[in-house]
Amino acid sequence: MASWTRLGDWWQAELAGDDSYEEIVTPLLLEVMRPEPGHTYLDLGCGDGRVMESVVAAGGIAIGLELVPELASLAGRHGPVVVGRLPNLHSIKADSVDGALMVLVVEHLKETDALFAEVARVVRTGGMFALVINHPTWTAPESTPITDEDGEVLWRPGGYFESGGSSEVRAGEHTVTFFHRTVADLLNAAADAGWALEKVVERPHHELVDQVGIPRLMACRWSLIP
Ligand SMILES: C[S@@+](CC[C@H](N)C(=O)[O-])C[C@H]1O[C@@H](n2cnc3c(N)ncnc32)[C@H](O)[C@@H]1O
User: Fold this and answer.
1) What are phi and psi for residue 25, nearest 5 degrees?
2) What pLDDT shows up at residue 1?
């Protein structure tokens, strides 16, 4: 397993020539997030800042938090960026932002309780949290599409109920760890920290027409209960 501090170059290379952010990831986030002009949003694990750019284009003010200094520096084109390690948000003041967002990051964190509690601390009461994740159907250990001898794509569910399990996926010369949790565990962790669920959206892969029956991404929006 490699820490994300060694994966920054790999992530940049992954994104080159990949249209999935334009085609599905960013539109999905904006659909659930509904950024409001003039509101301040914290982008947790902001990477190179491509999502911050979309939030700013929608009239929002974006602040990034990122582990990898090189990525944080790129994201700095779209707003201030703090270098830090989630779920720790100690450098962010309580009640200081209108909302938070997190795109394709939570599956790289071992546990979520501290994350939801920390985000609830820094978001003002009534504010929101939007999350886009690899769908738990897809992060379940050993889950994968399988093409049978007739060319039909079937889904091997793997260990969906093995919440807390992890998988190592090749990332250039290294591997990247995906932590799996069931939909129930994710939603219950958010509820325990005071987040009220407002919307959930699930999507198949945007290009693989033979996998339209297989959930690929999930997005959630919560508001912070007064
Ligand atoms: C798959 S990338 C997504 C980047 C960005 N959210 C986007 O959608 O373009 C995962 C990001 O999370 C960051 N990351 C992973 N673990 C982190 C942690 N513990 N604290 C802060 N950032 C982290 C990585 O450095 C990387 O930028």
Assistant:
1) -65, -55
2) 47
Please give the pLDDT value at position 191.
98
* Strand, coil or helix: 108: helix
**What domains are there in the chain, each with its CATH number?**
4-224 (3.40.50.150)
The reply to whether ligand 1 has any atom less than 6 angstroms from the CB of 86 is yes
Cα(47) to centroid(ligand 1), Å: 5
Q: Is the CB of 176 under 6 A from ligand 1?
A: no
Alpha-carbon distances of 173 from 2, 7, 11, 109, 211, rounded to whole Å: 9, 9, 12, 21, 28
d(CA 210, CA 153): 6
**102 Cα–ligand 1 center, Å:** 9
Three-class SS of residue 117?
A: helix
Q: pTM value?
A: 0.94
Q: How high is the pLDDT of residue 211?
A: 75
> 105: Cβ below 6 Å to ligand 1?
yes
pLDDT confidence of residue 167: 84
Check if 64 has its Cβ closer than 6 Å to any atom of ligand 1: no
Alpha carbons 105 and 71: distance in angstroms, whole number: 14
Can you tell me the distance from the alpha carbon of 178 to that of 108, in angstroms, rounded to the nearest whole number?
5
pLDDT score of 125: 95
Residues of the chain where predicted confidence (pLDDT) is lower than 50: 1
Which pLDDT belongs to residue 225?
85
Q: Is the CB of 4 under 6 A from ligand 1?
A: yes
